Amino acid sequence: MFSRLVQTSSRQGEIVEVVFRNGWDYMRRLLTGGKVDEPKLPPPAVLRNILVDLGPVYVKLGQLLSTRPDLLPAEYIEALSTLQAEVPPIDWAEVEVMLRKQFSQPIEEIFASINYKPVAAGSIAQTHRAVLKDGRAVALKVQRPGLSSVVEQDISLIRLVARLVAQTEFGQYYDIVSIAEEFAEALRNELDFTQEARYTDQLRQNLSNTRWFNSNQLVVPQIYWEYTTDKLITMEWLDGGAILSAFPPISFDGTTDLQAREEISTLLLRAFFQQICLDGFFHADPHPGNVFYLNDGRVALLDCGMVGRLDPRTQQLILELVLAIVNLDAQRCTQLVLQLAPPVQPINRVKLETEFDRLLRRYYSMNISQVNFSKLVYEVLQVVRDNKVRVPGNLGLCAKAIANLEGIARSLDPNFNIPNKIRPMMTEVFQRQIVGEAPLIALLRTALDVKNLSLQSPRQVELLLDRVTSETLQWNFSIREAEPIRRTIDSSANRLSFSIVVGSLIMGAAIISSNTQSSQVYWVSDVLFAAASFLGLWLILSILRSGPLR
C-alpha cells in the first residue's frame, strides 16, 4: 500500500529521497515494503537533518516532538529543540494578496503603513511591522500561502507510517496511532491563527492580575480581534529583542547587572509556577526566542501557539512530585508517578522504586546549587519510560517548559537554582490548600460541618440499628484483583476433581479385573483403564501447558 502511494505522489517521493540520502536504514526498509520490526531512530543529528530537509511542516513536527520528553530521550529533545525552519521570506506580492483576502475592505483604509520587509520568517508564517490608521503600531503574523494542502499531504503520510509502526510491540504499547493523531491535530491547530489568538488572550488575562509577581513587569501582546482571522493575527507591537541577546554572557569587569538578571529569572520562574501549578494553563514552548526583553525593561512572552492544560488533580500531583524530586524521595516519586500515569500492564513496582532510588542517590551528596533540575526531571522520565509506564502528553509538555525555563534562567544567572527558589512557593501553596484563601471562613465552614454531623449522627445510627435488627441490611463487598484468584482456585479444584475421578476409574478397573474371570464383564475393566489413561494424559498436558512446575 505504501509503495503505491509513493509512486503516485511527488511529495512522498521527495520524502523517500531525503530518507535514503540521510541513511535511515529502518525507514528505508519500511518505505520499501520490508519487515516491520521494532522502530529504530537514527542518531539525533541525523534525525534533525532529515526533518530540516523535508521542509517547514516536518520542522514544525520536530519542534512538537521536542516538547515530548515523555516519548524521546534527552539527547533527541536537545537536538530537536534547536530546530528552526531555514526558509526564505515570502515575497511581499504574495503577502499582499493574502492580506487583501483577509479583509472585506482595502488594506489602505486599515493601515497607515506596512513595512514590506519581514521582521521574522518561520515555517508557518512571517511577521511584518505595520501602523493602523489610528496610530497604533502592530505586528502582522501572516500565514504562508498554500500551506494547508502541504500539511494535509504530510498528515496522511504520518498516519500511514503510524499504522505500519503500530504493528510492532513498541507501536502497540505507546499507541502510536493516537500519538500520530495528536500531532496531526496540533499541526492543524498551528494553521488556525484564531486559536493561537484565543490562547494569547487567555494567558494575558491570567497573568494580568496576580499576587506572585509584579504583573506590570511581564507582558503578553494584546490581540486586535477586528483585524484577526484564521490566517492572520494582528497584535500589539512590542519593541525589544530576544532576552539572551539583551543579556550577553556574564563578564567579570563590573559592567554586568547581576541584580537585574536575578530579578528577571525569578519573575519568569514565578510566572510559570503560577501557570502550571495554579492556573493549569501554560505556555508550552518558552524557548529563548519566544521570551523578549523590551526596551522599557519589561519581559514579554510571545508565540502562544502551543499551550498545555492540567486538571486540578494533575496539578496537585505534579506539585507533590516536584517536591518529592527536590527532596530526593524515591518512594514518594514512585507513588506519585503511578498515580499520574496508571500502568496499562502490570509492572514491577519494587524495580521502579529501586531505579528511582539509584537515580536520586547520585544527587544526595551534591549541593542544591549544583543540581540541574531539568536534567533531573528528564532522567526521572527516562526511568519511567524504561519501566513501561506511559506518561500523559501534558506532563511531557510541562517537563519541556520547565527545562526551557531553567535554560533561560541559568543563562541569565549561572547561580540560579530552581529547587532553591521553588520551595518557599510550594510551601505557601500547600498552606493555602490546607487553610484556603480565607482561614476564618474555612474554620467557620468546618465548624458548621461538624455541627451538622453531630446532629445527623444519632439518626443515622438509629436507622442502621433498625436495618440490622430487621435483617434487611445487605453487605456488598468488592475485592480488587479477586477474579484472577477465583479463576486459579476453580482451576485447582477442577484438577483435583479430575485426579480423584482418574484414581477411582483405575481402582474400579483393578477390582473388576482381579475378581472376575468372565469374558462378558472383562471388557468393562479395559474401558475403565482406557478412560483413566485418556483423562490422566489430558490432565498432565493441561498442567504442563499452564506453566513451569514449581
Helix-strand blueprint:
Blueprint: H1 2-8, H2 10-22, H3 25-31, H4 44-54, H5 56-65, H6 74-81, H7 92-102, E1 111-114, E2 120-121, E3 125-132, E4 137-143, H8 147-165, H9 169-173, H10 176-191, H11 193-208, E5 218-219, E6 232-236, E7 240-242, H12 243-246, H13 258-279, E8 281-283, E9 291-294, E10 299-301, E11 307-309, H14 312-326, H15 330-340, H16 349-361, H17 373-386, H18 393-412, H19 418-435, H20 439-469, H21 482-515, H22 519-545
Parallel strand pairs: 5-10
Antiparallel strand pairs: 1-3, 2-3, 3-4, 4-6, 7-9, 8-11, 9-10
Distance between the terminal alpha carbons, to the nearest Å?
Answer: 49 Å
Alpha-beta classification: alpha+beta
| Biggest sheet features | 5 strands, antiparallel
Cα-atom radius of gyration:
33 Å
Mean pLDDT, rounded to whole units? 78
| Overall geometric form | extended
Give start-end ranges of low-pLDDT stretches. 1-8
Please work out how many helical segments DSSP would assign.
22
Strand fraction equals: 5-15%
Query: Number of DSSP strands?
Result: 11
Helix content: 55-70%
Q: How would you describe what is shown here?
A:
Strand 9 and strand 10 form a beta hairpin. The protein has helices spanning 2-8, 10-22, 25-31, 44-54, 56-65, 74-81, 92-102, 147-165, 169-173, 176-191, 193-208, 243-246, 258-279, 312-326, 330-340, 349-361, 373-386, 393-412, 418-435, 439-469, 482-515, 519-545; strands at residues 111-114, 120-121, 125-132, 137-143, 218-219, 232-236, 240-242, 281-283, 291-294, 299-301, 307-309. It is extended. Helices cover 60% and strands 8% of the residues. The chain is of the alpha+beta class. The longest helix has 34 residues, at 482-515. Strands 1, 2, 3, 4 and 6 form a five-stranded antiparallel β-sheet that branches. The chain has a four-stranded mixed β-sheet with strand order 5-10-9-7. Strands 8-11 form a two-stranded antiparallel sheet. The chain is built from 22 helices and eleven strands.
